[in-house]
Specification:
The chain is mainly alpha-helical. 69% of the residues lie in helices and 0% in strands. The longest helix is centred in the N-terminal third of the chain and has 24 residues.
């Protein structure tokens, strides 16, 4: 049987993958660039720390929020 902590880690990993894919699709950029953008954003830390329950939100919404609130990261 899998413990709760392992399930949470798998969920976070899948969420991160979904966010990266959403960034790639929305901005029309390749996955490598989207990966770099995501991991240099504040969102990465918030999800890692479980801040504000953000890890339970929809990946596409989080990607759109990142794009809107951190536009300088795309330069």
């Amino acid at each position: 049987m899998v413990d709760k902590k392992t399930l949470e880690e798998v969920y976070k990993q899948n969420l991160e993958n979904d966010i990266i894919n959403a960034i790639s699709e929305i901005k029309g950029i390749d996955l490598r660039k989207a990966f770099d953008i995501y991991y240099s954003s504040k969102l990465t830390e918030q999800i890692s720390n479980g801040s504000y329950g953000i890890e339970n939100m929809d990946a596409k919404y989080l990607a759109e929020d990142l794009i809107e609130n951190e536009p300088d990261i795309f330069e």
